[in-house]
Amino acid sequence: MHLDLSADQIQIRDAVRALCQGEFAAHAAEWDQKDDIPRWAVDKLAEMGLLGMSIPEAWGGLGYDLRTTTMVIEEIARVSGALAILFAVHNSVGAYPIYEFGTDEQRKRWLPKLTTTDMGVFSLSEPGSGSDAAALSATAVRAGDDYVLNGSKNWVTNGVHAATFLVFARTGGPGPKGVSAFVLERGMKGLSIGKCEDKMGLRGSHTVTLMMDDLRVPASHLLGKENEGMKVALGSLEKGRIGVAAQALGVMRAAFEAAVKYSQERQAFGAPIAKIQAIQFKLAEMERRVQAAKLLIQRAAWLKDRGKPCGREASMAKLYTTEAATWVTHQAIQVHGGYGYVKEYAVERYYRDVRVMEIYEGTSEIQRLVIARSMLRDGVTV
Ligand SMILES: Cc1cc2nc3c(=O)[nH]c(=O)nc-3n(C[C@H](O)[C@H](O)[C@H](O)COP(=O)(O)OP(=O)(O)OC[C@H]3O[C@@H](n4cnc5c(N)ncnc54)[C@H](O)[C@@H]3O)c2cc1C
């Protein structure tokens, strides 16, 4: 249930649902097993214009607001968490910051391909800095009309296939005020892609390391102002966190739906297990958490779409939904009994896929810090 949707929102949601159920659902387990999402799946998204989902029409996108984008992420995650992170990272933190913080010249250079064929990347984390992102140590030193970048990045989602990399490096002193954002392109001399992580879940979404070795980029690749890169990073992360919540919601919905179906089919003690009150209580709790998560996500996205502050709401949506998704997928396996523990049933994959959502784009601990700081500074929400 989504509140108050326009005919246009219903149309795009239903079209994406049909694409996901018709084209992707049958392949999601195979992508997980092979640890690879084939290019044709991205091409299907591109054919519908979804690579430019939130970029304004004037710049070649579909111009949808965040609330609609979260519904699309949810539908994709309902069949494949791995495809959902690929899509969400590209849209929310790969392509959109180039529109939001870029000059018209930069938009003209990168958006035509990012809205049609190319994948985008957001590369803030490093081997030595994750939660403490402003402690990053990659450097960008001004040299005439260029910058020379050195250092390594890790956990780069979409890094294997991306053509455009939004990367953060240090141009000034220590801390958040010495960081700048740069747009790098595949094939640049000095840019190399390292190992692909062998992950517990979201298999098929590639997560790689990235090395910059005397990588020379023209100053025209600086996104935003020098030393103001953390504004780009933090501004993008609000959207990103709401997007992660939508990923978690999609997977937990799939787990909930699977649990309901299985409970009505599986017989024990002469009746479907759905007749057992202990199972009913689990299903009721799942539904409660799914619906509560949906409302928190819609509220955060609604605020963001109206340009209102939403840092606290984005964190609450992400924190609640990802923890709820861990609980729901755990219980969905319990409802399936032993069958929930084997790959023949998708709940096994859902359980592995949601675990990382409590970690990336800010861990649950960091979300709690953001919520508490905002509450103590600006007052409680009434
Ligand atoms: C599959 C995957 C994909 C990812 N994709 C991307 C990507 O595309 N781009 C990108 O830039 N990054 C990406 N990341 C990185 C991700 O954002 C970081 O892993 C995350 O921010 C946590 O950082 P860390 O792993 O260094 O953990 P750490 O920061 O070392 O944290 C370790 C533990 O300490 C806790 N902790 C740290 N500081 C505090 C504190 N002040 N208060 C309380 N607890 C604290 C954390 O919550 C955590 O439990 C990805 C990670 C994964 C696993």
Query: Approximately how much beta-strand content do the residues carry?
Result: 15-25%
Q: How would a crystallographer describe the biggest sheet? A: 4 strands, mixed
Report the radius of gyration as a whole number of Å.
21 Å
Q: Which ligands, by name, code or SMILES, are bound?
A: flavin-adenine dinucleotide
Q: What ranges have pLDDT less than 50 throughout 5 or more consecutive residues?
A: none
| Level-2 CATH architecture of the largest domain | Up-down Bundle
What's the count of strands? 10
Query: CATH homologous superfamily name of the largest domain?
Result: Butyryl-CoA Dehydrogenase, subunit A, domain 3
Alpha-beta classification: alpha+beta
Task: Give the overall pLDDT as a whole number.
Answer: 97
Shape: globular
Going across the biggest sheet, name each strand in turn. 1-4-5-8
What top-tier CATH class of the largest domain fits best? Mainly Alpha
CATH topology of the largest domain: Butyryl-CoA Dehydrogenase, subunit A, domain 3
Order of helix and strand elements from N to C terminus:
HHHHHHEEEEEEEEHEEHHHH
User: Helical proportion?
Assistant: 40-55%
Number of domains: 3
Label this structure with key terms.
four-stranded mixed β-sheet, binds flavin-adenine dinucleotide, Butyryl-Coa Dehydrogenase, subunit A, domain 1, 3 domains, 11 helices, four-stranded antiparallel β-sheet, Butyryl-CoA Dehydrogenase, subunit A, domain 3, Butyryl-CoA Dehydrogenase, subunit A, domain 2
